[in-house]
Amino acid sequence: MRKGAILVFSLGALVLAAVTITNISEWRVRASASPLLKLGNYSVNPISHSSFSIYDGLNVTAYTLRFVPGWVEEYAVGRLEKRIPELSTYLYREAQSGAASYWIYLGNVLQVSSTQVYGPLVSLPASLVWRSTATGSYWLLTTARFTVGGSRVQQLINFSARPLSLLYNASYGCATYARRDGFEDACTLVSYSFDTSIPNSRIYTYGIQSEVSFDMWHGNPAPSLYTLSHSGYAALFVNYSTHPFSVASSFSFQYFFRSSLQDTDYLQMHFFIDSNMDGGPDVEVIYYGSGGGTAPLPLAPVVYGRSLPVTLYVAPGFVNRANIWYTITIARIYSSGYVVGLAYATTCEKGMTKIWWDNVSFYSCTLPSYLSAYRRGRDFTVVYVDRITSPSTPPSLATQVDAFGSTGNPLADYGVAAAIYNVAEKWGTVYAAGFSFNVSGLYVRDATDVRNNVAYVSVGVDSDGNGLVDTEYFFYLYDIATGYSGAIVSVLLNPGAVVCTVGSGGSCTPTSPVYKVYNLGTMTSGSSYRWSGTVPYTQSGTVIKVAFAVTDASYWSAGTSDDFWVWWDDFAVAYAACTPLPPGWIRGDGTIYRPLVLGGIVYAGSFTGDGGFYLFSSGLSPLLGARRSGNVYYARCGGSETMLGSFTAAYYVDLRALSGLWEVILRDYSGNILARHGCAPAGALSYVGFTGVQGFELRVFGDPP
Known about the structure:
mainly beta, seven-stranded antiparallel beta sheet, 51 strands, 5% helix, 54% strand
């Protein structure tokens, strides 16, 4: 204030020559105090400060303003009061120094600015509002002029402004990625018309003149497959054991007779099904058409040298009529499993049967390279791609399970079928902190199935970078009747280890702290659900695998009468690849923070994503700050939150914990004020930081310590 006073004194000679009363001594001669009282607003210290001083008999009032270079500042820095019933005054600019844009108001009336010398009279009392935009220091000297008792009076008011220093600057960025897999690429259309040899095929014939050949002259159009059986059979077998495909797809072909079939003449389409995923056939499924017979000839003993359980279906759409090409379309080959072989065959007990085959079309649905299966259970505990059934749009990823045992003890009896999604192979490095997923699932159980079923998604995290899962997160739904227990089984960290048993109330107590479980609620057969979850932001490392799993806890019985399925689809994940946190920052559960900056007055934060920027208590309770949801901003002071409004241009949240006023100021990129909210102090501040954001920039202004 000595500098300000000296500046005032240097202009004193000019001032004294123009007025009647200017100093304290003259008021004392009149035995009265000045009728004009100049007050300061101490609640906004240290952004603004006011003082009163006497220099060589002159009464000098000075106001200071601290500002962020280039930003708009606006505060009621003081107030002009009166000691007499009626008093009006105006401000007159006597001198200025430094470049700036500024405006000083009495009440709402502009008095002086960088382009205006004085303003109109204003009745007192009136607040003294100072608005400023500057990059460097400046000052101006004004006089408050009024007339009282026939005397002209002017009181000296000095305004000086100087910039705050940038004390601290830090940034943190995350690129957010969203991935989706609807398993559309798992199914490939296969079609052929026998115009070339069929790979991995073999011909089987029995009987007089029985024949299998490719007819280059006949077909729809030519060529076609020709089978002739004469008191026996003729079959073309195609081996798919090295590239099995799911039965959950349609299969169509065309056929032609020279003469219609008689009673024991058969058209036979054979599918050899691997139902337990051991690579070999377990069931022979035959779709047939005949002249009236119902006992087509199984070919497993011929092809594989052993009999298999046989399931028979009349070929849908079969027409026993000669000299016309017909199409048979099988909507779904079988309930579950994989086709490891198929055969086109004609058989007859007596006489001769000729059939031409053409235009085969089906979808070969297989697990992609980044998907594998983990299973423990009886037959029909399988993982496959289903092009027919889905909770949304086929294809889907199907998990079917039956229990392993029937003692009633889940620890010994459980069956599990899990599709393991290799995230690292599919999408590369996926950071675990904040990793989120959601996936649809259709749950169906057999009518006789005992309700001890659990379906879950597990997320495997490699926290130490050795390529192995160290922590496994489980997000589960359950269908468990009173008196039974379900089971959650690790398939990523310790495959086959029981994580917990699940009661009818959904409770689950993990056997180890490396397992993290989240109960998503119950499920009912025939309904679709969403499994979703988020890995805590405190989790380090990367997500390397995700599993879609189903467990049947006990009570196995033969067949498929007590199985259950979940069809999974529309798998979506979101994750971030982030730069390292700046030194001194700490990561909490969804919050990243650091201690307050010594000397900091203005904390300016900008951030990406919906989240918040706050000054925190020592216990990390947000005491001052703002959060964003979309374009809508909410200011927080203590335990209350106030909506500021929707602002598409908002960039900075400016936080100021001043002496008697805490303030949240919303600014655009250039520092213009969009909204502000003030409140009384609500506690002791310890930290500054961000909650739930994807990236941030923090700039702190103040005075160097």
